[in-house]
Amino acid sequence: MGSIRDVLTLPLAAYLWRRIRQLGVQSVMGVPGDMNLELLDYIDQVDGLSWVGNANELNAAYAADGYSRVKGCPGVLVTTMGVGELSALNGVAGAYTENVKLIHIVGTTGMRAQKSRAMIHHCLGPNPDHRVYSAISDSVRTAHCWLDDVNTAPGEIDRVLRECYLHSLPVYIFVPMDFVHVPIPAALIEEPVDLKPKTDYEACISAINAVIEMIEASSVPSIIVDALVHRFGASDVLNQLLDQLEIPTFTTPMGKSIVSENKPYFYGVYNGQVSLPGIAKAIETNSDLVIDVGFIHSDSNTGGHSRNFSSQARSILVAADYVQVGHARYDNVYLVEFLTGLSETLSTYPLTRLPGQRRAFTIPNPPIPTDVTAKHITQSWIWKRIGAMAGPGDIIIGESGTAQFGFSDAMFKPGVQYITQIYFGSIGYSVPACFGAAVAQLESEAWADAQALNDRARRGRTILVVGDGSLQLTVQEIGTMVKKGLRNVIIMVINNNGYTIERAIHGPEQGYNDIATWNHQLLLSAFGAKDGEVNSRVVDTKEAFEEAISSQEYTDLNSIQLLEVIMDKMDVPWRLQAQIDLINERNAKIKKQSQKTCR
Amino acid sequence: MGSIRDVLTLPLAAYLWRRIRQLGVQSVMGVPGDMNLELLDYIDQVDGLSWVGNANELNAAYAADGYSRVKGCPGVLVTTMGVGELSALNGVAGAYTENVKLIHIVGTTGMRAQKSRAMIHHCLGPNPDHRVYSAISDSVRTAHCWLDDVNTAPGEIDRVLRECYLHSLPVYIFVPMDFVHVPIPAALIEEPVDLKPKTDYEACISAINAVIEMIEASSVPSIIVDALVHRFGASDVLNQLLDQLEIPTFTTPMGKSIVSENKPYFYGVYNGQVSLPGIAKAIETNSDLVIDVGFIHSDSNTGGHSRNFSSQARSILVAADYVQVGHARYDNVYLVEFLTGLSETLSTYPLTRLPGQRRAFTIPNPPIPTDVTAKHITQSWIWKRIGAMAGPGDIIIGESGTAQFGFSDAMFKPGVQYITQIYFGSIGYSVPACFGAAVAQLESEAWADAQALNDRARRGRTILVVGDGSLQLTVQEIGTMVKKGLRNVIIMVINNNGYTIERAIHGPEQGYNDIATWNHQLLLSAFGAKDGEVNSRVVDTKEAFEEAISSQEYTDLNSIQLLEVIMDKMDVPWRLQAQIDLINERNAKIKKQSQKTCR
């Protein structure tokens, strides 16, 4: 005889949303459409879960990405089969490449229409396969499921959510319209989804021992901290471990803000040959052991693949799901588990040699920019200045382009989170990502605490830095910020009259690097902000910039502020120019070589 | 001994752009990126070809679609591998579903980086396959090529352009960065690409004879004109044929504006059960022969699949590449060739029975709307009114949503082109499509003539009708209109406070059908238009609407005008409600039946 619980049911959609809420998700991004409307009905029925509603689906995907990066749980977006689903694809691809957890839920046609291959709106051509879109997203997800069988659906949801966490990658859940309400046993929801990887503990212990041994054997070790540490939620344990090791520590451009940058063992950003003087030499020449943690070895994260380490024998790689110590590889050893195990081991058995001896590098002061005395706002000045203005709890979003290259020179205070999309590098990412990040920030306990104490200065701010070119791709998400009444956002628009990063790469005066000339001062008002014009300013000198960011409106932020920053269209960060020079030089060499071979 | 012409070369990119220019293309849409910049250098070197530069890639695809629909040649867009390419995908999918010619050119990484699977920005994950995106677009194109072999590249370009025309579908051309400048024989450009299908002439003649025989044998034939007639460039020959036949003629919602609607044989829009009184009966009951030309049998083009013809034996289907006469099918018979052949045959051998006898239907007057006397702007009034205001040379773009359902009730004067995306139904399509259409309109001879004569009233206008919800997805393309200095565009924003079509379908008062509240009156100015506020108006009564559209600013249009039209959020066109009712009724029946079966 079954208990009463065995006969209780809940609709499939309710199960889905409650599962998602269990992960910590509080806001669902997306755009409504006739194939997902009934699915959306169930969102607000879940305690603590809300529908957001973005201006378009690409923006929804970017917003979910930004949300996930701040909150640690997956970002969630809902679209409609085909039209919305494909519009979001590029945003999901970015999350895939940068290991951001995303759950993309697609409302589709019902099973009857699918089986008869009916020509329903949003389908492709005559006799359409309604599942053709599902194949399209195969390369940008780690798992997917179709909720088209009442018996398997709950298990499929659970499996896919687990995969999302295991790989920190996007997953897709397809919901046919006619399966939204089907009843499933309510008891299933009570057992939480197992999100932990199946660690090989013996391999993990061996790896920990091998790593400790190698560190002890080295004279001048160094650590490079990269993005996957953040993506797999290992930032806290890593910082704890760094405090134990006190080994000279660097971050990559993508790893920036994971490490507390005020620590004495922190040396700055390592980006191959595109680093400040002394940095590359410290790692590549002076270190006899390099520990590369949570790496993404993409071009702009390695100075255009210009890293030049000595030998594999003297390196340790800590990847998402394995650890490589010299030539030995330990599989099924996962980032968080490994770092936690290493930290715990060191607590019990500290290193026999004092970490202090390993603080061996003398890095020269960065060169003084030639335009340091300029009164107008320069690339050599602004990024450090924005970095300095941010305090604990603040989030900075840097768009692809000059901002991304520039921010490697900024020093971030502990508790500042920096978000940027370097590997995928899709312009337009930052505006919706800022929206998602700001929503997550408002949901944080720290923000609620500061708010409760009416401690305005301690409430975190989300500071977006976007170029006038990139802004145009996704600008309408400012409207969603206004709709949601966000008051924790500062939008800095770098107005340098077009695609400056592309001018630096090719065609400085070509028409294709020009853009439409907008009136940025009217944007907030056009998108519906009250006092939009009052809260919009334009500055073209360092002094005016200082005045703006030190005003009470900015320090005690209480409504969206837009700051248009006028800069020279041909001014670029030194790092961008250095990387371009390096690649051009390399290409010239290759060309010369191939010409020789041809003779 | 070769001639001098055999040794002359031109860069591959120059060949590509000259080929595209030969098709009639004058404007190239897209967004620049570091992998396509050098490719773009060659555009302006071709006489009569210009780069446009859109606000984002989805918009560029929609714009290319609108451009193609007006101009007849393919729309062309250029994007960057991955980031831009995927962002455009949904726009290309729409063109695919609606048989619009598109050439999507993607600038990719060079071959060396592809072969080494380097982690270059815009790639997917570790050890990336740079060609993974090419597989993603496989379902939304009819052909593609990679220009990665100097010997095959020109032939591949030609093959793909031919396929674009044969099927009137999108094609992709992938250009690795390092192949942009490779030299190819210049002489190749002189032989034009063969764009004509390989007709089976015997089958074509047999089909023509069979069709004439069947028409002669019928007493009450009727013709349904649909979208593919337009897509395959057969509108002129079809209208000529209709004048010869004088058979009662209908259009589908997607076929609207192909036929001259002032002809005595034109009866209106046939959309299955969702038609004005008498229409369905005329075709389904009173006709003894139905000729369905250029059909796309999607749901909203057939009243939710509610057509109810008698028998196949009494029907003729004229498809893109075959003709079906009763049970006999004639393959490799193509739309234009067939219609031309039929028209020529009828010129020599007219029908033996007078066409006049076939004008047999009495269609009752449309019912008078219950809200006919309303002073405010109603759904039952506005679409007919906008239809009536358009004159020869004008283009009307109707967004998915109420506009799309409403415009079936409008009567268009000859020479008015109506554009809408009914089968794919992707909201946001209309704003960039309007931009593309307006660019094509300015390039037309008719416009140039009127301009030369300073005949402002005869210069065509492009009239966009978009809802406040749909507008938000792609609004930034208004900035591109301003950048290009377009002065032939009227933007009508139907402000009915959210997604009204979705309120009608499900959740009338649900929050997910609400949108951000923008200040539409500021949009033109924010996007950089001079006198933007002067050229923006808001109207909420029929009288004010009349006043606006009859003002000189609208009749002698000389700068972009924005007209915000306030309408009730729950008012919907009768056709939308009728289709919803029909589908709900059908679903209820299915549910009831399946419950019976289960017992």
TrEMBL record, chains A, B:
<keyword id="KW-0479">Metal-binding</keyword>
<keyword id="KW-0210">Decarboxylase</keyword>
<feature type="domain" description="Thiamine pyrophosphate enzyme TPP-binding">
    <location>
        <begin position="412"/>
        <end position="553"/>
    </location>
</feature>
<dbReference type="InterPro" id="IPR011766">
    <property type="entry name" value="TPP_enzyme_TPP-bd"/>
</dbReference>
<dbReference type="InterPro" id="IPR029061">
    <property type="entry name" value="THDP-binding"/>
</dbReference>
<dbReference type="InterPro" id="IPR012001">
    <property type="entry name" value="Thiamin_PyroP_enz_TPP-bd_dom"/>
</dbReference>
<dbReference type="InterPro" id="IPR047214">
    <property type="entry name" value="TPP_PDC_IPDC"/>
</dbReference>
<protein>
    <recommendedName>
        <fullName>Pyruvate decarboxylase</fullName>
    </recommendedName>
</protein>
<dbReference type="Pfam" id="PF02775">
    <property type="entry name" value="TPP_enzyme_C"/>
</dbReference>
<comment type="similarity">
    <text>Belongs to the TPP enzyme family.</text>
</comment>
<dbReference type="InterPro" id="IPR012110">
    <property type="entry name" value="PDC/IPDC-like"/>
</dbReference>
<dbReference type="Pfam" id="PF00205">
    <property type="entry name" value="TPP_enzyme_M"/>
</dbReference>
<dbReference type="Pfam" id="PF02776">
    <property type="entry name" value="TPP_enzyme_N"/>
</dbReference>
<dbReference type="InterPro" id="IPR029035">
    <property type="entry name" value="DHS-like_NAD/FAD-binding_dom"/>
</dbReference>
<dbReference type="InterPro" id="IPR012000">
    <property type="entry name" value="Thiamin_PyroP_enz_cen_dom"/>
</dbReference>
<keyword id="KW-0460">Magnesium</keyword>
<dbReference type="InterPro" id="IPR047213">
    <property type="entry name" value="TPP_PYR_PDC_IPDC-like"/>
</dbReference>
<feature type="domain" description="Thiamine pyrophosphate enzyme N-terminal TPP-binding">
    <location>
        <begin position="13"/>
        <end position="119"/>
    </location>
</feature>
<feature type="domain" description="Thiamine pyrophosphate enzyme central">
    <location>
        <begin position="208"/>
        <end position="336"/>
    </location>
</feature>
<keyword id="KW-0786">Thiamine pyrophosphate</keyword>
<keyword id="KW-0456">Lyase</keyword>
